[in-house]
User: Fold these one by one.
Assistant:
Number 1:
Amino acid sequence: MQADKIFKINHGICLKCGGCVAAYPEIFEFDENQKILIKENVEIKSEDLEKIKGVCPVAAIIEK
Ligand code: SF4
């Protein structure tokens, strides 16, 4: 499963803390406006979904 097909960021509540980028740099990155992007074509395992969402302190990483 591809991360960008599964997840989206609730930018309204994202703190831009960088926690997701630090934990999963292969999935998340900041764009030039310090907005979190989910990289394309990154394969993740279904058993890791909750762990990945769990890195966000405000639950801004949500499933589509
Ligand atoms: S961990 Fe959550 S609040 Fe922090 S930058 Fe990522 S999506 Fe935003």
Number 2:
Amino acid sequence: MMNRDKIMEWNPMHNMMMNKWAMKMDMWNEEDDAMKEHCKMMPNMAWCEKYKSAHSVSPKGREVEQKWEFDISVEWLPEAKPSEVVKLKDGDSYEMTAYAVKQEVGNRVVKRLSYNWMIPGPLLQVEKWAKIKIKLTNKLWIETTLHSHGLRLDDSKFDGLPTDMWGEQKPMKDWESFTYELDFPDTGVFWYHPHIREDYTQEMGLYGNFNVTEENYWNKVDRDEFLILDDFSLDDPFYKGKINKTLMGRFGNIMMINNEENYKLEVNQYDTVRLNLTNVANTRTFDFGIYKNWKKVDLKLVGWDIWKIEKEVMINSQIIAPAERYIVEVRFDQSWEYVIKSRDRKLGKIIVKDTWIRKKQKEFWSDLKESPEEYSFIRKNFQKFLDQKVDKKLRLTIWMKWMWEMRRWMPMWNDGDEIEWEDNMAMMNKMSNSNMMEWKLVDEETKKENMDIDWKFKKGQFVKVEIYNDPNSMHPMQHPIHFHGQRFLVLSRDWKVEKNLQWKDVSLVKNWERVEILIEMTNPWIWMSHCHIAEHLQSGMMMTFIVEE
Ligand SMILES: [Cu+2]
């Protein structure tokens, strides 16, 4: 495929538009990063002459630019450690401190951020219904909070939503501590991350899993593994005063599982392994598959975000949007080197070692179980929910300063694919930042947007929300939409009824897609809903809603 940026470079219309655009901008304004990036990549374009000499080439210019970036020095920093399992019982307390660390990535030693020097942060294993305390201390030199993603907390003040997002926690400054009281009403895989500047701090390594256990809940397997999928970019700076790459979010070119570039899992032949997958990337959607030679192996899908799936199903790959979790089982019958991939990207490998002991399988791996008890109430009332009038309609769109003029000359604003898998418009993306655009959730009834939306519900209510990804938006792309503090089911996608039920807390809404979800309002007080692409959230794509007792 031809590089779109190249097409634009020799397109005279584009050159003309750039002239008009540049004239409109205050070239010496703080907002001129778009031009700076543009001229770095296309130095011979109109208007760039003046710009080059003023900013990006002179050492002095570099100094000015650096001042606004987060510190990247690795001097005195300890090495990042791999994650450890921490088992916590009801009533236990655990202390976590967020620290800067260093790590070798792509043959370079770079600064990262960690919980207790670990990336991923410790895997916190707790039993269902336990109550635990986590005391977090901030030693990051940037404000932070801890959000426990997917937990339906008794008390929303421990949700980590900062006050500037209408939350209840004052952002934690350097050396401050805060104790979170967490409860775990649902079995499954959850995760934690900051809720301030996720685009920077989560990308730098602040994430970890909760494993909420319940005896005899999942199928018996030989191994239970937690795989956190991520991508990392070495070359893009982070700015203190604004969020960059807000158009499509920050894609990385280094793929990592559990913070390792060359992830390797060793298992024995005939082992059945449960893989608990979490996507913590800022924007990348993974298409997870395990390959034997060029063929994808069977995966048994047993659960997503919250609880088991209604009916287990055999698949050979799984799309995983940012913040989603998927639980799959795999049986390895042959000693072989299997490769974990997402489309053309290699994520890691699974080495199956020969064994002389042929294990007797207590149950057939390929048996597909059903869990009707988990969804009995929903199933009984399913038709009623399908017929229920839509309570709220959300439209997903974008507003861009200046860019609207350019749009006319750029009819190919996305691939025509349902999902943008890669940074296909790298230049446009690099030019974009939170000062020049706003991603939007629009309430179709009131036309209110983002934080102006003021939804109110009652505890116990089942609220039907239609989320429509506007095809007429200036840049349609997929958005993983997350609701805090509650759980929901996807009822239909583009009017097609979902056959298999699954409790979730985040769902991907693809390009042009219309998704109907049913949210069970179980936990009172103030909660947030937002796009889980970190750069979209940070450029406006968020709202709050209230659940009354
Ligand atoms: Cu988004």
Number 3:
Amino acid sequence: MEEPGQASSQQQDPKTKRILANHRRLKKILSHIAEGTEYGELPTQLAELGVVLADHFHDEEGDDGLFEVVDERAPQCHATIEKLRQEHRALTDELAELCETARSGSEDDHARTQERAMGFVTRLKDHEERETRLFLDSWCTDLGEMD
Ligand SMILES: [Fe+2]
């Protein structure tokens, strides 16, 4: 017998399954970093975050991704999409620099690096929330045009 939600996940196409699995992984890593890490653990967590985030941004920017869908539904949001796209570059660069700092830092530097990592998580979550809002607003705009 199928568990609730199981049937729908079986009906999802491979791309959707991969995106959802990636989101779950992203959420798990962000929670782990936000809760605090031990010295020596942070570089591994940040490196894994870098891999997951690269996939995540690629999906958002790619064919049928969030940006393309919003751009089609709500062309007036084009400038906002470009700003979010630039934020992807900035977040990627910031994370790469943070990874290097965590990898090369001593145990004495850990608390400061951990604090920076938490700041990064907060900015990334804010970015994601704005994307979600934009997506939902564009959907409402699309539905509104059906009136
Ligand atoms: Fe994004």
